[in-house]
């Protein structure tokens, strides 16, 4: 190989490595921006969850009013999804999905909690995907089944808090019983999926603990209810029967 050929080969190698550098820098920069978006989604989703807990037992609000408040809180989150969609346009979503996963899972937890409070049912994958879509119904990016399931698994922790809080309120015994049954069914159904979804088995252990706490609260209500001669009617009418305000859960 002559000097000219060697020089051309060297320049070709340098050009190839320079191209690799540009691609890697672009990947890292885009990944960092998506991680930042994911964190913003997480923060706003947590705020929505806090709001839902505040209004869940507010008798002054009906289901439609609660839903309207939640929709207002969803608006800034949708803006973050739109920003993520811009970053992902023309890219391989699989390369970046893990960067968004924490925020998406927190969002699924929030919207599934809102959906349960409004309808008393589990939000479906299709319904959740629709809330990660443009007003025209075009998905900003795909909702993976793993993010959906892991987000739903986290929902059980919020339902545990709802059940225990409700058990100390007037007529809350029925709501706590409904939540207990719902969480019990989720726990049983998710168990068969643990071999196929990373991290679900770990979350299942947390879900099981949440279920135990709900059942323990229900057991406590039944024991205390034996003090009422016409249980459950008079028990439900007494708002002071529930757990102490400073009792941890």
From TrEMBL:
The keyword Cytoplasm applies. Its main location: cytoplasm. The keyword Nucleus applies. InterPro entries: Translin_C, Translin_fam, Translin_N, Translin_sf. SUPFAM superfamilies: Translin. It is found in: Cytoplasm; Nucleus. Keywords: Cytoplasm, Nucleus. GO terms for molecular function: sequence-specific DNA binding. GO terms for cellular component: cytoplasm; nucleus. Belongs to the translin family. This is Translin. It comes from Botryobasidium botryosum (strain FD-172 SS1).
């Amino acid at each position: 190989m002559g000097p000219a050929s060697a020089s051309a080969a060297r320049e070709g190698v340098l050009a190839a490595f320079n191209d690799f550098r540009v691609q890697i820098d672009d990947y890292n920069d885009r990944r960092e921006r998506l991680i930042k978006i994911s964190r913003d989604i997480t923060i706003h989703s947590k705020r929505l969850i806090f709001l839902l807990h505040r209004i869940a037992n507010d008798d002054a609000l009906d289901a439609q009013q609660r839903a309207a408040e939640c929709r207002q809180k969803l608006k800034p989150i949708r803006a973050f999804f739109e920003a993520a969609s811009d970053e992902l346009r023309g890219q391989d979503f699989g390369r970046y999905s893990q960067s968004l996963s924490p925020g998406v899972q927190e969002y699924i937890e929030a919207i599934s909690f809102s959906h349960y409070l409004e309808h008393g049912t589990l939000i479906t994958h299709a319904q959740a995907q629709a809330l990660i879509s443009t007003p025209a119904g075009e998905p900003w990016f795909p909702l993976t089944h793993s993010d959906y399931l892991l987000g739903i698994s986290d929902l059980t922790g919020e339902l545990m808090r709802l059940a225990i809080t409700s058990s100390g309120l007037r007529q809350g015994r029925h709501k706590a019983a409904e939540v207990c049954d719902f969480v019990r069914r989720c726990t049983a159904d998710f168990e068969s999926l643990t071999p196929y979804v990373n991290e679900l088995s770990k979350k299942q252990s947390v879900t099981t603990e949440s279920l135990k706490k709900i059942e323990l609260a229900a057991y406590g209500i039944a024991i205390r209810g034996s003090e009422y001669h016409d249980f459950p009617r008079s028990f439900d009418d007494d708002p002071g029967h529930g757990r102490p305000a400073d009792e941890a859960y």
